[in-house]
Design brief:
This protein is an alpha/beta fold. Helices cover 35% and strands 20% of the residues. The chain contains eight helices and 13 strands. The strands form three sheets. Strands 6-7-9-8-10-11-12-13 form an eight-stranded mixed β-sheet, with helices on both faces. A three-stranded antiparallel β-sheet has the order 3-4-5. A two-stranded antiparallel ribbon has the order 1-2. The longest helix is centred in the first third of the chain and has 32 residues. The radius of gyration is 26 Å and the shape is globular. The chain starts with a strand and ends in a 6-residue tail after the last helix.
Length: 308
């Protein structure tokens, strides 16, 4: 049989016949049969991707618990501070800065969920009393910051805050980044890319992966975990970090178990130190009854004469 046209202009110069199932066959190859197979496979892949994105968006919409700022500042505790607004994308972020000296070591704080800059006013005072400058900021939708919290927004917020921190702490003897709870994931997300800009980091009460934590916190059933994109895999991110890191985790942490802290510690490749705290709850850093015990090793590590 001579040259034949197949399906909207496909040209075939070889033998052509109609198979028993009514399918075009080219040289013994069932074209439409395998075309349908390929289309079905593509449809399944597309459906899986849509389902994955739908699960992610649903969990993302329920995964953050912002807290409104009540106006608490270090000034109300007797320490001079500065609050200002930064622009992150199309959003406005509130931040607070306290410094005992232009050359004091400085730390940028990534706070936890259900928190805002007001919860850290007493900590900023404590750091000030130990000769350490600090900056804390609210993510999109948290405190007085505008917008809504999403994984993408928090990454953009973190990079915006880091730039502002570098400007504020331009003369600091050392510059550090500190993440607590949710803040450890936000910090770990950017740390491999910005580690050359700071002298060290502190990972306080962090979780290994967002996927595992969502299941553990009953925000997602275990059967749906394979559909969840693990956008915050801190364990993998920290394996690409080589700068000095202090990691703290309480053996009594009732929210994020101690084993997750150990996993983060073992993932780190550079100089590192693990402090296992005893008898402290998850929120110890911001609870007056426990904060001194929690912050003592941090303050010692952040000291101006420490090299990591």
């Amino acid at each position: 049989m001579g040259k034949r046209t197949l399906q909207r202009g496909w040209i075939w110069s070889g033998p052509l016949h109609v198979g028993g199932a009514g399918l075009y066959v080219l040289g013994g190859f069932p074209v439409l049969y395998w075309l349908r197979k390929a289309m079905l496979a593509a449809l399944l892949v597309l459906s899986a991707w849509v389902a994955r994105e739908a699960v992610f968006l649903l969990l993302e919409s329920q995964g953050f618990e912002p807290a409104a700022w009540q106006g608490d500042t270090p000034d109300k505790l007797g320490v001079s501070s500065t609050q200002w607004v930064m622009t992150s994308g199309d959003r406005q972020l509130m931040a607070s800065w306290v410094s005992p000296s232009p050359i004091a070591p400085a730390v940028l704080i990534f706070h936890g969920d259900e928190e805002n800059i007001g919860n850290w006013a007493a900590i900023q005072k404590m750091l000030y009393q130990h000769g350490i400058a600090s900056m804390v900021f609210d993510y999109s939708g948290y405190g007085a910051s505008s917008g809504r919290p999403t994984v993408a927004h928090l990454r953009e917020d973190a990079l915006t805050a880091l730039q502002a921190f570098q400007n504020r702490a331009a003369g600091a003897s050392k510059r550090y980044l500190l993440g607590f709870s949710l803040g450890t994931a936000v910090l770990a997300d950017i740390l491999p890319d910005v580690q050359g800009q700071v002298d060290g980091a502190v990972i306080a009460s962090g979780f290994a992966t967002a996927r595992e934590e969502a299941v553990k916190a009953s925000r997602a059933p275990s059967w749906i975990a394979p559909l969840m994109p693990d956008v915050w895999d801190s364990e993998a991110a920290l394996s690409r970090v080589n700068l000095p890191v202090l990691l703290l985790h309480s053996r009594s942490d009732e929210v994020i178990d101690y084993q997750q802290g150990l996993r983060l510690y073992h993932a780190l490749q550079g100089p590192k130190r693990m402090v296992a705290l005893e008898g402290l709850p998850h929120d110890a850093p911001v609870l007056p009854a426990y904060s001194q015990a929690y912050w003592q090793p941090v303050i010692a590590w952040l000291g101006p004469f420490r090299s990591g």
